Amino acid sequence: MQHPIPCLFMRGGTSRGPFFKADDLPADTAVRDRILLEVVGSPDPRQIDGLGGAHPLTSKAGIVSRSAKPGIDLEFLFAQLQPTSDKVDTTPNCGNMLAAVVPFALETGLIAAQGSSTTARVLTLNTGMACDVTVDTPHGYPEYEGTARIDGVPGTASPVRINFLDTAGSVCSSLLPTSRVRDRVEMGEGQVLEVTCIDNGMPMVLVHAQALGRSGDEAVDELNRDAELKAVLEALRLRCGELMGLGDVTAKNYPKMCLVSRPRAGGAISTRCFIPHMCHNAIGVLAAVTVATACVLAGSVAHEVAQESEGKVKSISIEHPSGEFNVELEIDPGDPQIVRRAALLRTARLIMRGEVMVRTRDFDNWRKR
Ligand code: NQM
User: Fold this and answer.
1) How far, in Å, is the centroid of ligand 1 from the Cα of 150?
2) What integer is the mean pLDDT of 230-241?
3) Residue 286's domain spans which residues?
């Protein structure tokens, strides 16, 4: 016996996955997680029996509901799954999947279109972060076609504009969880690595590519095959996790690791992000916001290699393996460590609508109640 669950399969930015209305899934998190694992087909490296795409960027799910909280329209819970693990992580945010939330809510009647464009305030339940998301709705439903282009996605699409309002210290206690803009980490055998541990929407550890004997413009496949680099990054990640107050991060998807180096293509900085064990084909949304923030923080390892950007509102282009990601940061004039607003552009698309079938027996018990 299989059970149908209403589901829209959506691309959000450079990620994709199934989206559900919260009411269509059990509230019990253990049961919900078993269902999500079955939906994407984890654990299995090929995810052959589910909707996952055999990569962390395509092993994600979104759960959306209307909000009863004052000033908030929608609540979004992001779930990170992994091809080879049976864990479902709802701790960190995902700004890419976030881009599909307002189109999903319009498609499923959770909110109504407001005119030629629709803005909704979305609260991410993962970290309690609020943002305003605007999509084009010229015909009363989400427009998917358009001329906006984001690197990492072929072609063009209608823009999804995201304005983050309060990103500092999303999972960590503050923007700079070690209270320093730069830390020196002993790696054994006399090796010391200088890092910036920072969380402006995503806990991250930034390190110069050169300090690890890499150039920082290697191809993703090359980095994914680089077992020696991955071993050093993981050892560094575990140490930094403790320093950042995150405890033992062995089984956690954060902090993400990012190799930074001088820009090559006219941007502010060049990046290679590990999420945390595979190299990202591009860069995560909140990872980009976090790296951009580090670029403007004097003393950080990113600032040292970044191209300076003038003005109170800074437009910072983060180079990544498949292009660049532009983040607009509004810095508090009185305190350079306070980012008032981070704005950026994504695109999203409804790929499929229907019902996803699960066998989970728990689901049967939940439906009978
Ligand atoms: O940083 C990948 C992605 C992400 C997360 C990851 C993200 C973000 O590209 O906001 O979007 O860091 O695992 O989807």
Assistant:
1) 14
2) 98
3) 183-336
